[in-house]
Amino acid sequence: MHNIQLAATQIVRQVLEDGRNLNQVLDESLRRKSVWTPAQRAALQDLSYGTLRHYGQLKALRDLLLHRHMTDARINLLLLVALYQLQYSKAAQHAVVDHAVRSAEMLNPKIRGLVNAILRNFLRNQQDLLSRAAQTQQGRYSYPQWWIDEIFAQYGEQAGAILDAGNCHPPMTLRVNRRSGSVLAYLQQLAARDMAASCIEPEAVLLEKPVSVDKLPGFFEAQVSVQDAGAQYAARLLDVCDGMRVLDACAAPGGKTAHILELAEVELLALDKDEQRLQRVAENLQRLGLAATLKCADAARTQDWWDGQPFDRILADVPCSATGVVRRHPDIKWLRRKDDIAKFSTQQSEILRSLWATLAPGGKLLYATCSIFDQENQNVIDSFLKQHSEACQVPVEIPSGRLIPNDQHDGFFYALLQKTA
Q1: Is the terminal CB of the chain with fewer CB neighbours within 10 Å at N or C?
Q2: The pLDDT value given to residue 221
Q3: Active site residue 320
Q4: Strand order across the 197-199 sheet
C-alpha cells in the first residue's frame, strides 16, 4: 500500500507543481508498473483522481493540522493522499496511517513521527476539522477561488449544487447504435447479465454501476458506445438528414462524429489538428463500421482544408476550458487560470467566424462546448450575431442552451445558428 501512496504522491506532484495532464502522468506511471495487479492499478487511479478532486478540502485540513510550516513538499503531498484515504476510501484507517508513516520514512525519516501524529490527530478530531475546513469556500467546494466566484456570479443559488456535482464520480452512460438495434433490446441484454440500467435519452442508457467496456454486451459488435448523455445532444440538435454534406470541425475523439453517422447517411468530413487524437476517431469509426473523410487540419484555417463546396450542417465542438467535465478530469480545476477563459473565447470566436464562411445558405451550424462559463458560451454567440446579420439563433430543446452537470450528464452548452442568406 505504501508504494501506491508514494506513486500517487508523485503523480499529484507532477500535476500540481509541473502543470502536467493527469491522464498522461497516470498512464506513464502505470506503464512502468506492468507487474502491478488490477487492484493495485485501480487503487493508484483512485488515489490520484480523488486527491486532486478534493484537493481544496484536503489542503485546508492539512493546514489546520500542521502547527508549523512544512518545508518538505513531498511530505506535504503525501499527507494529502493519506487524508484522502482516511476521509473517502474504504481502506482500514490503521493501515493507511501505518503505510503513510513508512512512506514518510522513505522520503524523510525525520518526519515520520510528525506524519503519524498529524494523521492520528485527524482521526481523533475528524468532524471538527471537517467543519472548520468548510468555513472557507475553497475548503468547502474544492475549487480555486476565482472559479467559485465565477460560478456564484453566473448561477446564484444553483452554484453550490453545480460545484458539488463536479466533485462526484461521473456517471457511465452508453449510446445505443440505432443501426444495430433498439434501446429496449439493449436494456434486455443488460438485464440478462444482471447489469441495472435505465434509458434517459433517445439513445442514452445510464448504467447503475460503471463497468469496463469488455463487460458490455455488444461493444465489440458495434451495438453500443460509451458517451455522456449531455454529449449525445449534439448529433440530434444538428438535425442531419440523409444526403447532407456535414462537417465535424473539431472531431476527436469521435463520439459525436460516430453518432451523426449512426443517425443519417451523410457525407461527413471530420477535422482535428492533433494527429494522434484523429487516430482515435479512425479507431472509433472502424469499430462501429462507419465511414468518414478524416483530415488533420486547424478548423480556423479553412484555406488548408476546404474545397469550396459548402456544408449543409456544421458541428463546431470548439476547444474550451472543459469546466463542465471536471469530475472526469479533476486536474483541470488546478491547471486552469482565470485568464485562460478569455483566451479560449478569442479562439472560439475565430473558429466560428472561419467555419461560418463554409456553411451553405439555409444551413445550420451547432456551436458546442463542455464549458459552463458564459464567456465561452452565449457571450461568444451574442458577439457573433452582432457582426453577422445573415445569422440567426434557432431555439433548442435545452433552456438557454445550458446543460448543468448533474447525476445524469456533464455540463455542456449548445447554440444552433442558421444562415438566412
Answers
A1: C
A2: 95
A3: no
A4: 197-199, 204-207, 172-176, 224-226
